[in-house]
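Dear colleague,

Following up on yesterday's call, I've attached the two folding results inline so they're easy to grep. Please treat them as preliminary; we haven't cross-checked anything against experimental data yet. The first protein's sequence and structure tokens come first.
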Amino acid sequence: ILDQLNTTRSFNYLMFPADIIGQAAVYKTSQADLEEGGIGGTIDVKTRNPLDLDELELSGSLQAVHTELADQTDPQATALVSWKNSDETLGLLAAAIYQKREIRRDGVEVLGYFDADPGPAVVDAPTHIGSALFEQERIRTGGNVAVQWRPSDDLEFNLTGLYTKFDADNVNANF
């Protein structure tokens, strides 16, 4: 069944909004305290926790990005609210992100080769050369919530929920 699902151990980091990340550590060699990673190493991504932030933290941003080739200006918005009690034993956090991007890429594609010289030297020549147009609309939404309770220095409970969605509809044409 797993073969039919085409599962891999890879992760597309485009799915993970940077505003939600509190810390990222990259390990290129194995360690006893980490679950074994792939041939490229292990990336340990930690979301933000309310007990690591100020007592009341509010942050947000509104941005617009203009893509010249697509001739489009697209929005991006983020928001975060975090609270912890004065004893720093209980904290709550909520964060959200919305991002839209219109992407266009023009180029030249080679769609095959043939052996142009039947002699001993191999000389490959393109059979078809095309003018490529790639257009994509990306919409990324996401958020996380966290409840952190630390009743003592030796005991901590952390409940985190993460939602992320990345839609990327595209059209690729070649003439």
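Below is the second protein, in the same order (sequence, then structure):
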Amino acid sequence: LVVGDVDHERLVTLAKKYYGGWKRGTAKIEIPKEPPQTEEKKVDLTWKGQTLPYLYLGYHVPGFDAKSRDVAALDILAEAAFSETSPLYRKLVLAERKVEMIQAGAAFRRDPTLMSILARLISENHFDAVRDEIYRTLDDAAKNPIEPDRLAAIKSHIRYAFAMGMNTPD
């Protein structure tokens, strides 16, 4: 789409020059694969300004595939384990007040990405305790299935949140 005061003949010449040989669907993008991660990687970042401490955990997850249930399962895990209705949220945010905010999720991308867990801590003194609670929560999720009623409620919430998200240009 070209808008404005243009020389039509020159525009057509330039378009043919730069796009004339283009064929739909022939571009192949080679994305190098990362080597398998064999151990936990830890990075400490500091800010010049004053801020509450953050804990960020990232786990490699596959890219989105409409034929796979992996990304949908990750959405359910994030909602069950880290949402405002989760036992972990009630413990760390409401009862113990070690965390101001906790959230988790993975983006729908066709390339492999990260499942992210992010917590904003009240104090850096709680770092180890919060990290260990997150690890326990993930371990528990791996060993114990979600109760059927809670699973149905989570699926319903995710479905309707998606539908409501269609209301905006985002």
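For the second protein, one point worth flagging: The chain is about 40% helix and 15% strand.

Best wishes,
A.L.
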